Amino acid sequence: FAFKFRYFLFSFLCWQNTIPNWVRDHRVHHKFTETDADPHNAKRGFFFAHVGWLMQRKHPEVLRQGAKVNISDVLADPVVQWHQRYFWPLKLIFALLVPLLIPVYCWNETWIISLSATLCRTVGLLNVTWLVNSAAHIYGSRPYDTQINASENFFVSFLSIGEGWHNFHHTFPWDYKASEHTLFMNATTKWLDFFAKMGWAYDMRSTKPEMIRTVALHQGDGSHAMNAYANEISYDEFQRKIKESDR
Ligand SMILES: [Zn+2]
Ligand SMILES: [Zn+2]
């Protein structure tokens, strides 16, 4: 509960929509990635996937599939219900008022500087969040699946502390790490591991290395062999294995 509550607070700090809204869009995005039913379909270009989708009415397919997707688990959660009921007052308090008041009252910052900092932080954070839908669906390598546009993007991972390893995330969406790397540019995983140790986060699923390797071998772009286990097999050997498996 405490863990959920923190995330609930963070959702305001990052100026996000309501939790059920987010969950519904996210589930539809994974189920219908890069089709008309994808809320931020990257096939419609960088700008649309980044922020354009929030500036216009949703595509009829998004609405149709969104209405079908099951989010009853989320709606049944008491924290979520409370969050929905008081969404706007809570958002104004945690996203605007508290960040505005702390610098002014704690270290005598001027109002205008405090307001500018709050606005800059919000604009910056939103753009980083959106890069996961835009840049990480267009630019980068595809070590696990070349059939999808979601890609491994170092730049986005750096900015979003671990959310840019998007080819992995779309190939193995159940994996809580959202990446194969647990240390490299993925502080989010360490954060979740920390709460798992405390017992606040549980039932976390991940993917067996053998499964990742097999999938990468069959449908990846070959970069997996060069990066993740370069020490174990050479690139030539990797190519040979692919040819063998094709036979
Ligand atoms: Zn996702
Ligand atoms: Zn995605």
UniProtKB/TrEMBL annotation:
<dbReference type="GO" id="GO:0004768">
    <property type="term" value="F:stearoyl-CoA 9-desaturase activity"/>
</dbReference>
<dbReference type="GO" id="GO:0005789">
    <property type="term" value="C:endoplasmic reticulum membrane"/>
</dbReference>
<protein>
    <submittedName>
        <fullName>Acyl-CoA Delta-9 desaturase-like</fullName>
    </submittedName>
</protein>
<keyword id="KW-0472">Membrane</keyword>
<dbReference type="InterPro" id="IPR005804">
    <property type="entry name" value="FA_desaturase_dom"/>
</dbReference>
<keyword id="KW-0443">Lipid metabolism</keyword>
<dbReference type="Pfam" id="PF00487">
    <property type="entry name" value="FA_desaturase"/>
</dbReference>
<keyword id="KW-0560">Oxidoreductase</keyword>
<keyword id="KW-0276">Fatty acid metabolism</keyword>
<keyword id="KW-0408">Iron</keyword>
<keyword id="KW-0275">Fatty acid biosynthesis</keyword>
<keyword id="KW-1133">Transmembrane helix</keyword>
<dbReference type="InterPro" id="IPR015876">
    <property type="entry name" value="Acyl-CoA_DS"/>
</dbReference>
<feature type="domain" description="Fatty acid desaturase">
    <location>
        <begin position="9"/>
        <end position="173"/>
    </location>
</feature>
<dbReference type="GO" id="GO:0005506">
    <property type="term" value="F:iron ion binding"/>
</dbReference>
<keyword id="KW-0444">Lipid biosynthesis</keyword>
<dbReference type="GO" id="GO:0006636">
    <property type="term" value="P:unsaturated fatty acid biosynthetic process"/>
</dbReference>
<comment type="similarity">
    <text>Belongs to the fatty acid desaturase type 1 family.</text>
</comment>
<keyword id="KW-0812">Transmembrane</keyword>
